Amino acid sequence: MKKSFVVPRGIERRRAEGMETVILSRGALKEILITVRPDDGMDLQALLEKAWAVVRAEGATVLRQEVFGVASIPDEVERSALRDVCGEVDWPVTWLDEGKSPGARLTGTHVHAVSGVPVRRLALDGDAVGSVFSDGVAEYGHLGGIASLNPGVDRKRQTRDVLERIEAAAALAGMTFGNIVRTWFYLDHILDWYDDFNAVRTQFFTERGVFDGLVPASTGVGGGNRHGAALVAEALAVRALPGHENELRVKEVSSPLQCPATTYRSSFSRAVEITCPGHRRLTISGTASIAPEGQTARIGDVAGQMDLTLDVVQALLESRGLSWRDASRAIAYVKAEGDAVIFRERAESRGLPPFPLLFAENDICRTDLLFELELDALSLNSA
Hints:
CATH superfamily of the largest domain: RutC-like
Helix content: 10-25%
Mean pLDDT: 92
């Protein structure tokens, strides 16, 4: 049975079997975050229909979508299923393969949508790469499905291409790379070349002056893609509207339990907080079992690595006066499909409430890391 409860002054959280929906209302604008996990035997079309029912009921426009775990589904079947359910698809969709376990996997979809305001689409070289909307204080650019147009070139060149295409998409939204607050990078065979990826990213950030401003929060995990490319990316860009600069605050949030990732030459912030009048959101980077000095902790112990990761994420939430109940979107990346059961046990043993969560079977950026968790939280404030 579907349950719904309303947090006063604008956040509604709905929970049904296999699905969570979080709705932030401010004036006529509704921002809608949908997480759908497949029920037993659910195929791709049924999964998409479940998410689309919410979009349709809210009269919403999709901004960006991710679909995880489509390894054995042909590309034309994916696109046909989405088109059959949703009609014309002019928003960015990131289709992600994953894992090494045999057989078909379909681990779910995230859909970010909005109603009550116009949405502007962004396209590069004929590809839908972004959607932009405004809440009257700031503009938000949701970018996705970004890969190199030259998948035959070397991985470093493709990384540079992707970063430049993110920058180009931001420019279409009237922004610069300095407005990027969050990135996601899914690297095919990540363990073979993560250091090379990070070197290119660091060089690009240096050239663009990113280290002189806000370093985006980020996730970097393994995962194949339908482009046959070395990596595919998503990003979130934010800028204040003219005259509202003092009403938008975007800042890095340090982790109470971990050193900055830049300490070990990985160019991302642990978390970024975005505050507007009436609400704020915290986006926590992909977080793993990293000790305060930067080395992998609890090697070979899946449950132990999960416990430490949960400690770190909880400390970040609490440092901003938030809790697990404020979560609006999360992905748990496991090295082996069966580890999802272990995570559920660890979460239950800590008394964590249910929150919008997908599992994805992906390699993490180090061979000895067995688990990673990213999480977004949404809260009202009194400003």
